[in-house]
């Protein structure tokens, strides 16, 4: 009887979720320890604890990408309190990746300078990961800027291989940083009503964006690839990461590690994009195939959020 019930349940699950049953997504979080208008330790601790709390509560993996220049005080001394913010990630089982020391764009500096900044940015995270018997395996380009010539990209790829790094691409691009700037500024101004309105618009915006990347993936591959999400260690995610995870689950997603998401064959495709924008790998692959493979109607940040953020454009 149990088996029959089990089979019925399985059939029900498959038939209700249809082709969405195998959706997977990895959650990657940039600009650690924290990016916020309030730089005091208490705020950073609160944001860190809340982000980690959401992931622990939902029992899902996340990976954080660090800018180590945020770990030093004004005198250039390593601040143990800031380092402890990162220790919290590792203590909860969440790995750290390299996002350069100073969040510099590869398009703004020479390759030797960029590589020096990357190496300067692995000092603390390598020590911390070694404490749990692991290394630092992923690199995320700041601004998703990846170089304007194939030569620079190829040379940097060799450098990464020599230093045992793998690029952490993303398929699910979004403007969480605009929402968070709006959320921060509204909080700083004491406008709780607007803050609530911004927060309430965030998860629906992200869901519309995810639906867009699902369509873009199907247009390009005839199927939905494993999604890789980029968000930031910011104020709005400290309040809404739980809501985001719930939305993913509602859409039939299983949240997987970055390692697992990147096992999807799609990520073997080369990135030949040479433009100046920081764009999704789905758009890079689409542009390589021809502009007509770009899915139209990408959702935008609502005007009222844009206005509150102080950003001119997305
Ligand atoms: Zn960043």
Mind explaining what this structure looks like?
The chain has 314 residues and is an alpha/beta fold. The chain has helices spanning 2-17, 41-58, 80-91, 111-120, 123-131, 150-162, 176-188, 192-221, 235-250, 258-261, 281-289, 303-309; strands spanning 24-35, 63-66, 96-98, 138-139, 166-167, 227-234, 254-256. The relative contact order is 0.16. Strand 1, helix 2 (41-58) and strand 2 (63-66) form a beta-alpha-beta unit. Helix 2 runs parallel beside helix 9 and helix 8 (192-221) packs across helix 9 (235-250). It starts with a helix and ends in a 5-residue tail after the last helix. Helix content is 50%, strand content 11%. The radius of gyration is 20 Å and the shape is globular. The site of zinc ion has 5 residues, from strand 1.
Task: Supply the key terms.
314 residues, alpha/beta, five-stranded parallel β-sheet, 7 strands, 50% helix, globular, binds zinc ion
List the helices and strands and how they pair.
Blueprint: H1 2-17, E1 24-35, H2 41-58, E2 63-66, H3 80-91, E3 96-98, H4 111-120, H5 123-131, E4 138-139, H6 150-162, E5 166-167, H7 176-188, H8 192-221, E6 227-234, H9 235-250, E7 254-256, H10 258-261, H11 281-289, H12 303-309
Parallel strand pairs: 1-2, 1-6, 1-7, 2-3, 4-5
Zinc ion binds next to β1.
Unreliable runs, pLDDT <50, ≥5 residues? 1-18
One letter per element, helices H and strands E, the order comes to HEHEHEHHEHEHHEHEHHH
Major beta-sheet overview: 5 strands, parallel
Task: Name the beta content range.
Answer: 5-15%
Share of helical residues = 40-55%
* Oligomeric category: single chain
Number of separate strands: 7
Report how far the terminal alpha carbons are from each other.
Answer: 56 Å
> Helix/strand-derived class?
alpha/beta
User: Helical segment tally?
Assistant: 12
Q: List all distinct small molecules, including ions and cofactors, that are bound in this structure.
A: zinc ion
Rg calc: 20 Å
Q: Name the average pLDDT.
A: 94
Shape: globular
């Amino acid at each position: 009887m149990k088996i029959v019930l089990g089979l019925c349940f399985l059939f029900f699950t498959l038939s209700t979720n249809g082709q969405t049953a195998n959706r997977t997504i990895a959650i990657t979080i940039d600009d650690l320890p924290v990016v916020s208008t309030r730089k005091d330790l208490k705020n950073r601790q609160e944001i860190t604890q809340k982000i980690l709390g959401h992931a622990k509560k939902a029992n899902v993996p996340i990976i954080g990408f660090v800018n180590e220049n945020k770990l030093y005080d004004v005198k250039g001394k390593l601040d143990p309190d800031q380092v402890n913010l990162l220790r919290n990630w590792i203590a909860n089982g969440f790995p750290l990746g390299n996002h350069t020391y100073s969040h510099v764009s590869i398009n703004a500096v020479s390759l030797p300078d960029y590589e020096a900044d990357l190496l300067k940015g692995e000092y603390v995270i390598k020590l911390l990961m070694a404490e749990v018997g692991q290394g630092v395996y992923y690199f995320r380009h700041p601004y998703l800027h990846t170089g304007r010539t194939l030569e620079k990209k190829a040379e940097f790829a060799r450098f990464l291989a020599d230093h045992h790094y793998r690029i952490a691409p993303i398929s699910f691009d979004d403007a969480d940083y605009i929402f968070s700037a709006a959320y921060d500024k509204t909080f700083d101004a004491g406008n709780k009503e607007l803050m609530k309105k911004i927060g309430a618009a965030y998860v629906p915006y992200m869901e519309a964006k995810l639906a867009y990347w699902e369509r873009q993936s199907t247009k390009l591959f005839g199927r939905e690839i494993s999604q890789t999400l980029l968000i930031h260690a910011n104020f709005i995610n400290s309040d809404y990461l739980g809501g985001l995870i719930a939305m993913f689950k509602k859409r039939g997603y299983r949240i997987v590690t970055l390692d697992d998401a990147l096992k999807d064959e799609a990520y073997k495709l080369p990135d030949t994009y040479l433009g100046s924008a920081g764009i999704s790998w789905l758009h890079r692959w689409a542009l390589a195939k021809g502009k007509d493979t770009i899915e139209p109607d990408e959702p935008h940040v609502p005007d009222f959020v844009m206005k509150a953020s102080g950003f001119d454009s997305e």
